[in-house]
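Dear colleague,

Following up on Tuesday's group meeting, I ran the structure prediction for the three-component complex that the binding team flagged. I've pasted the input sequences exactly as they went in, so you can double-check that nothing got truncated or mislabelled along the way. The structure tokens for the whole assembly follow below. Feel free to forward this to whoever is handling the docking comparison.

Inputs:
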Amino acid sequence: MGSPPILAVLAVIVAKALVVIVVLLTAFAYMTWLERRLISRFQVRIGPNRVGPFGLMQPLADGIKLFFKEDFVPAGADKVLYYLAPGLAMVTAFTAFAVIPFGPPDVQLFGVPLFQISNPNAGILFVLAVTSIGIYGIILGGWSSNSKYSLLGALRSSAQLISYELGVGLAIVGVVLLAGTLQLPEIVKEQSGFFFGFLPRWNIFVQPLGFLLLLIGATAETNRPPFDLPESEQELVAGFHTEYGGMKFAAFFVAEYVNVITASGVATTLFLGGWQGPFVDQFPILGPLWFVVKIFAFAFFFIWIRATLPRIRYDQLMDVGWKLLVPLALLNLAITSVIVLIWPSLGGGS
Amino acid sequence: MPIENYLILSGILFSIGALGVLMRRNALIIFMSIELMLNAVNLSFIGFARQLGDPTGQVIVFFVLVVAAAEVVVGLAIIVNIFRAKDTVDIDDIDVLRG
Amino acid sequence: MPTLNQIIFWFFAFTAVASGIVMITRQKPMQSAIAFLVTLLSLAGLYLLLDAQFVAILQIIIYAGAILVLILFVIMLLHSHSGEGSTSKVPLQRPVAILLSLILFGGSIYLFASTDFGVASTPPSDMGTAQNVGHTLFDKFILPFEVASILLLTGLIGAVVLAKREREDSSNDAH
């Protein structure tokens, strides 16, 4: 068997990345639609239903509207950083998705797994690294706008992101200990099979506390309600993107929703068995479908709590992060380490 | 790529960092220049680790990261305190020993 | 015909040096910090070239994601007052500084050029992975590791003490 031509491999990789970007953009557009429709239902309103059937063309109309908005720069703004910030936010949001597997790695074309863009050895750490770069989009956007609301929003969000990243990181370490690897496809494979013959061997049943911590942390890291302090409308107008309009605002908006999708993807991969589901072994093509279903469940959950919970106060936010999330994550980590040490068969590590 | 290239790059970056420390008077930029010097040394450690095929050099970089983190936390707390007391971060204005 | 590795090396080397120079010459600390971010990212890229992917990721998570964000946080906190005074109190500071760092640069180049480093060894295939670095760390450096964690704890407590004393002062002022 000769090695496949390098150009074909490159073409497959580029096509893969393009397809994922297009799918993510579409998912972003319809997540805004879903969010507006669902929240309307929760609040006994109707929501956008004029453009197309069920208002399905609404995201397109929004996009066209934003595209024709005036492109302005606030007085006294730091121009370079002002333009750099939304781009940085959007690029990092897309990059983080690159290591998440959305299907079995056995499906290959020219030896390239089709259902994951890249599988570095550092795996899940890559997601953490990229999201930590994503903070700069928010900080720069807030600082360069030369506005006190933006600056306060950026200050809040950087403090919030640093605080919650710690808890999320520690919660993830529990799963990594069990799997004995950082690579996401391996972590998913680790979760195949059943407990007692019927319960899927997902990490959510092994690490319920870790799952809860990741869920809270992910909500905070994606600035979703009830942790949307950086852009709390009633206090800060719109937080770090107060001074942004048109397509630059759209870029921040895309970044926010893609981050939600990525966070759902990470949670699915680590705790809900990723692409696994009935009949995936026979028909690997079903993998992405199950993955999308699980992500959709998370998206629904995020929208649901937005409609349900009031925003918490800033000091409460910091208290939850440092005095609840981090100690509980440490406890979870300690218990997991002890269990893996006593029953090495549970952990994959040597 | 021979290791000399990496070492010379590391030397250039270290000199830039040293220049920043000597030339600038803004405490925050001096701080970042010190970090740049640490990073330059890290680069040569990684280069030597690759040259010798021994991950010990990478472990040392790990320790440098830990020390840098501790240093930044304490250093920034001191800078903020100085700023609150004297309303400046220009190190030329901070020339008395009593607070 | 340069190889791919060489192109990547020169690209990252050039960005690292250029952004380093930008960092020490900007007037606004915020712009310096962003230039420093570029330096950190290009160094992470060079680490990848040197088979150190775990350290490269750590570099981004710890340096770019935590340390530099903390510095940015302080810059935003001090905001408009964080510039430099107009005149230097030290005479001839700039020329002397440039001279001294050129001497340093020349000395280090001389040292590197006059040393024979031998031929590069072929690294093991798992060089620089999390497993490889982790085994080295916990097999050979377990005591330094514990000392490092104590150092971090000390730093943590030190920062809290420094910040806390300030808060008491300001509350006394208010009364």
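Chains B and A do not touch (no CB pair under 8 Å).

Cheers,
M.
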